[in-house]
Each structure stands twice: as structure tokens, then as C-alpha cells.
Amino acid sequence: MCSGGFAKCLGISLMPLAIVCVLCNILLFFPGGKIVDSEQITRQVWFFGGILGSGVLMIFPALVFLGLKNNDCCGCCGNESCGRRFAMLSSILFAAVGVLGAGYSVVVSGVAINQGPLCYVEGPGENETGWIYPFSNGDYLSDKSLWSKCKEPKDVVPWHLSLFCVLLVMGLIQIALCAVQVINGLLGALCGDCCGCCGGSDGAV
């Protein structure tokens, strides 16, 4: 497969992942599926890891990867004037942007999962009652009985955990795909977009 064709496949894969990440981040603004005040939303949601990191910053590399297959790879093979090698090289820069964006989303998601959601707690002490972060160091991940600490919004813990886990997994997949494009872009820049076509083109002349 030509480097440009492979890059297009990566771009096609990245687009739905970016959309899923944006939707997950939007849903996190409604903890437990409820509309709450802005100060009752977990702080990491406001970092826009899914919207900005794995969303907007991932759309640009995806569009660039999709455009690398627009020209005929065999017709451009060996022709430096067509700029195909430069296009493959420039795609590495956009892949790096994608890695940074997805990496940002992964870090934010990891911190949010470890910290747990902001929720209303009715504790024995005055300092333990109200909208607080009742969990620490991810203790609630191994002890599901702790989830009952959160009284409101209802089901906020599984909502928080599942959506941030999706963002974490999607971000890791995006990083892997962008890393693959870095290698693909290097190969395309060094040996041409479609090395296998060179021999066929030369023999046909």
C-alpha cells in the first residue's frame, strides 16, 4: 500500500475517535445525566481534554492524513517537483500535534479517574458535608462500596468513571495511530509515496 493510502486509512480512523472524545467531554458537563451548576462539575471537565486535546487538535492531523492520497501516487513517484515527499514529511509535524493533543487528554483523564468526581456528600463532620471530592488516590476504583458516599448527582461515579475511561482509551489509540504515521511519513519522505510503483512506471516507459 502507498504511504499516502495508508495515511488516508489512519485519517479515516482518527475522525470518529475525535468525534467520540468530543461527545464524551460534552456529556461530562452533565454528571449523572443531570443539569447542575457550573461549580458542581468536576474541575478536570473544564480542562477540555476531549474537546480540545483529542478533538480539535486531532481533527487537523486527520484532515492532513486524508489529503495525502489526493494525487496519483504512481504518477508522482520519483518526481520531486510534485512535492509528495515534502507532504509526507510535513505530515510528521501534524502527527506530532496529534500526539500532544491526545497526550493532554490522556493526562487529564488519568488525573480525573484517580481523583474521582465532585459530588454532594453527607458526612459526619461539617467539613465532610457538601460538594467535595470524597475520594483520594483512586481508592474508589477497588472498593465499589465507597461510591455510596456520593448522594448527588445520582450515578455520578459510574458516569464519571466510564466517560473518562473512554477518553483515556481513545487518547491512547490516537497516540498510537499518530506514532504510526510518524514512521509512515518518514518512509514516504525517504523512499517516495509509493516505492512499489517506481519500477512499474519506469518499465512502462
Describe this protein's structure.
The protein has one domain (3-204). The chain has helices at residues 3-27, 49-67, 73-76, 84-115, 139-142, 156-191, 195-204, and strands spanning 119-121, 130-132, 150-152. Helix 1 (3-27) runs antiparallel to helix 6 and helix 4 packs antiparallel against helix 6. The chain is built from 7 helices and 3 strands. The relative contact order is 0.21. The chain has 205 residues and is mainly alpha-helical. The model is unreliable at 71-78 and 195-205 (pLDDT under 50).
Task: Kindly list the characteristics that best describe this protein.
disordered C terminus; 3-stranded antiparallel beta sheet; 205 residues; single chain; elongated; 3 strands
Rg (CA only): 23 Å
Helix content: 55-70%
What is the SS-derived class?
mainly alpha
Order of helices and strands: HHHHEEHEHH
Number of domains: 1
Number of helices: 7
Count all strands and give the number: 3
Order of strands, widest sheet: 2-1-3
Low-confidence stretches: 71-78, 195-205
Report the sheet-strand fraction. under 5%
What would the average pLDDT be, to the nearest integer? 86
Question: What about the largest sheet?
Answer: 3 strands, antiparallel
N- and C-termini, Cα separation = 22 Å
Shape: elongated
Strand and helix map with partners:
Elements: H1 3-27, H2 49-67, H3 73-76, H4 84-115, E1 119-121, E2 130-132, H5 139-142, E3 150-152, H6 156-191, H7 195-204
Antiparallel strand pairs: 1-2, 1-3
Helix pairs in contact: 1-2, 1-6, 2-4, 2-6, 4-6
